[in-house]
Specification:
Blueprint lengths: L3 E2 L1 H14 L5 E7 L2 E8 L13 H13 L3 E7 L13
Parallel strand pairs: 1-3
Antiparallel strand pairs: 2-3, 2-4
C-alpha cells in the first residue's frame, strides 16, 4: 500500500518528537482513501529515549475516534532520539 502524507502531518510529527526529547515520541497515523489526514500523538509511558510503550487508555480512545471519523490506522510512528543519524530495526 502506498500512502500520501501531507507536509503538515510530517511537520506535526517532527514537532511532537522535538517536544518529547530526549524521550521517544509515539503515535498513530490515520488515513482515508490512502491519504494520511491526521496524526495522533500518544504518551510514551516509559518516558525513555530508547524505547516506548503507548498509554493503553489513549490508544483505545484514539482508535475509537479514528473509527468514528471514518478513518483507518495505517501506521504507528515513533522517534529514535537515542539513535541520532541511525535507523530503527523495530520498537
Amino acid at each position: 500500500m502506498t500512502l500520501q502524507i501531507e507536509e503538515r502531518i510530517l511537520t506535526a510529527i517532527l514537532e511532537h518528537g522535538r517536544r518529547e526529547e530526549p524521550n521517544e515520541a509515539c503515535g498513530y497515523l490515520a488515513a482515508r482513501d490512502g491519504v494520511v489526514i491526521q496524526h495522533i500523538g500518544l504518551t510514551n509511558i516509559d518516558a525513555a529515549p530508547e524505547h516506548y510503550t503507548m498509554d493503553p487508555a489513549e490508544q483505545f480512545a484514539a482508535i475509537r475516534r479514528i473509527r468514528e471519523e471514518g478513518m483507518q490506522v495505517v501506521a504507528v510512528y515513533h522517534t529514535r532520539p537515542a539513535l541520532r543519524g541511525g535507523h530503527s530495526s523495530g520498537p
